[in-house]
Amino acid sequence: MNIEEIKENVESSVKSFMKEDAFLLENNLNERTLTHRLACHLEKRFSNYNVDCEYNRMWNKDKGGHIKKEIQAENIQSDDDKGTTVFPDIVIHNRE
Fold first, then answer.
1. Per residue in 21-66, pLDDT tens?
2. What 8-state DSSP symbol labels residue 81?
3. Which residues contact 84 (CB under 8 A, 6 or more apart)?
4. Which helix H or strand E contains 60, and what residues bound it?
5. I need a surface site. Which of 18, 47, 51, 87 has the fewest CB within 10 A?
């Protein structure tokens, strides 16, 4: 997928989000609600990829060659509703 296809897919996803989920924006819902719904629209355009919200882990091999997940940020709080913890909002990637 080239950069133009990526731009087109993102723009199309945002347009469908704005059209179909305008209620969420008009009623000032939480950012996590908005990013989840946008991710749903992105999944339709990036069907060969994983679309995850607030993805905060990466796969790495330990010294023995075993695959494990590692948190890449310190002090992550899953109950943070004040926006003080940094999370990637939406990640389009291949897991592993």
1. 999 999 999 888 999 999 999 999 999 999 998 766 655 556 665 5
2. -
3. 77
4. strand 57-61
5. 47
